[in-house]
Amino acid sequence: MKIFWDTNLFIYLWERQGDASEMEALCEWIESERHTIVTSSLTLGEILVQPLRLGREETADQYRRGFAGLEIVSFDSKAANEFARLRALHPGLRPPDAIQLACAVNSQCNVFLTNDDRLGKGEIVAGLKTLPLSRWKDGV
Fold it and tell me: Which of 72, 80, 89, 132 is the S-S candidate for 120 at Cβ 3.0 to 4.6 Å?
């Protein structure tokens, strides 16, 4: 199974924010079942902003290393077309969210995990189940 992680999950994991026990359980399950974590290059960019803003290059390097072994999807022309389709169908969808969803759809993910209240409602978007972290077990 391919599981797309929105940026906020990496923040919870690496900065120990949010529900740490839920993140630990999710990570253990993914590892034991040999599922693939997928995210986009936008996630990498978003997560590096704060450490770089604070001059914490070592933290930024740790985050970069944390992405090793994950499937990182680029926002290419195929994703741009999916982005446009999603924005046309869902006018209230913010551009960064549409980029993430387009990358998840194009990489054939099964589930999109987030803690963004606008996205994690258990809806099916372009064949992709969107779930909040608290309901990750519903996606399996």
Answer: 132
Distance, in Å, from the CA atom of 87 to the CA atom of 102, rounded to the nearest integer, reads 10
Cα separations in angstroms, 19 against 8, 62, 69, 133, 136 = 12, 21, 24, 9, 12
Give yes or no for residue 120 having a pLDDT over 60.
Answer: no
Residue 10's SS3 state is helix
Q: Between 102 and 133, where is the model more confident?
A: 102
Inter-residue contact 131 to 120 (CB < 8 Å)? yes
DSSP 19: -
CATH of domain 2-13+20-27+36-139: 3.40.50.1010
Domain map of the chain by residue range?
A: 2-13+20-27+36-139
Task: Enter the pTM of the model.
Answer: 0.89
Residue 76 amino acid letter = D
Q: Phi and psi of 31, rounded to 5°?
A: -65, -45
Task: Please report the pLDDT score of residue 122 as a whole number.
Answer: 58
